[in-house]
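$ ./design --mode recover --in tokens.txt
reading tokens...
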């Protein structure tokens, strides 16, 4: 209940405006976040596994995108400061979710730069 009353912390209180505390929902959400944290840790541990890291990024993008979308419809409930802070933090999480989906840098072929430079001289 304390988490519900005081989220996100720093003297702010965003959740009570959305309705009464629901212990079952709070525990299920916590379990889901722990599962996603474990999945994300596995993706970081196996960072060279492009498929795993992209699935992790896509999973977080779906969650964070839908989460941002919901909160866009609830801005009227908050002060201007809380509107700005919540939108900035949620947009940052959407952007962070995109990072694993970016194309991986291509490894350079040894000698490629030398050949390209030699062609310019010839």
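writing sequence...
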């Amino acid at each position: 209940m304390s988490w519900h009353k005081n989220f996100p912390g720093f003297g702010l209180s965003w959740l009570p405006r959305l309705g009464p505390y629901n212990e079952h929902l709070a525990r299920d959400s916590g379990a889901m976040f722990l599962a996603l944290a474990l999945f994300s840790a596995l993706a970081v541990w196996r960072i060279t596994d492009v498929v795993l890291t992209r699935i992790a990024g896509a999973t977080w993008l779906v969650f964070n995108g839908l989460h941002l979308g919901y909160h866009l419809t609830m801005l009227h409930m908050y002060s201007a400061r809380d509107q700005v802070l919540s939108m900035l933090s949620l947009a940052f999480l959407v952007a962070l979710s995109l990072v694993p989906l970016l194309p991986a840098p291509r490894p350079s072929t040894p000698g490629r730069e030398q050949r390209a430079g030699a062609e310019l001289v010839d």
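exit 0
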